[in-house]
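PROTEIN–LIGAND DATA SHEET

This sheet pairs a single protein chain with one bound small molecule, coenzyme A, given as SMILES. Inputs appear in the order they were entered. The predicted three-dimensional arrangement of chain and ligand is reported afterwards as a token string under its own label.
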Amino acid sequence: MSGAAPAPRGQLALVHWPALTAAERDAVLRLEISAAQVEFAGTLHKSVAACERGDPAEVAGLAIRTEAGIVGWLVLKRGAAAPDWTPPDGAVVSGLRMDLRHQGRGLGTAALALLPGWLARHWPDTTMLALRVDDGNVAGIRAYEKAGWAEVGARQMGRVGVERTMTLRLGAGTRP
Ligand SMILES: CC(C)(COP(=O)(O)OP(=O)(O)OC[C@H]1O[C@@H](n2cnc3c(N)ncnc32)[C@H](O)[C@@H]1OP(=O)(O)O)[C@@H](O)C(=O)NCCC(=O)NCCS
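PREDICTION REPORTED AS:
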């Protein structure tokens, strides 16, 4: 879709918020997406605040880092911190965003592909990932599909319009 140059993936990593340096936390807080995209992903400050005040056993903020620095962010929630539609033993991905300057380079898809490995190491009891994505969020839906996610269940009316529920089963095949 985009003419942006593919990004080198070698050093792509998901870094837990507590493990970030102060400079990296600042870089997370400076990530930018367009105003229209905020409708899809919510505000960054709300997302970071949810991770800072949440029970670390149930809420994990993960920065997406390359050798160029922090390029994106997402939050995982499970247990009582997760929405009521979360599958049993599941975790939900929320607030995913790639900085505008790094979108369309394959990094969002590549970051999603790292999630099963992070979960196997840190939340090994999690058997499924789930999320709700706005039906008009073409890039989001495509990135999830490319990372192996599939739509399940009926579409729902969400905060800004119709939303799809998508899941990724974490089986032996998806674990490192
Ligand atoms: C969704 C998002 C995380 C995807 O990350 P990304 O690094 O830009 O995505 P990728 O480069 O891995 O591209 C994934 C697919 O989406 C496509 N895509 C990316 N931007 C697109 C756009 N604006 N319109 C249509 N397709 C788009 C890519 O072409 C690619 O598909 P392809 O390989 O078949 O061409 C990123 O676009 C983003 O931060 N969006 C704003 C916040 C958001 O919507 N978050 C999701 C909330 S559920």
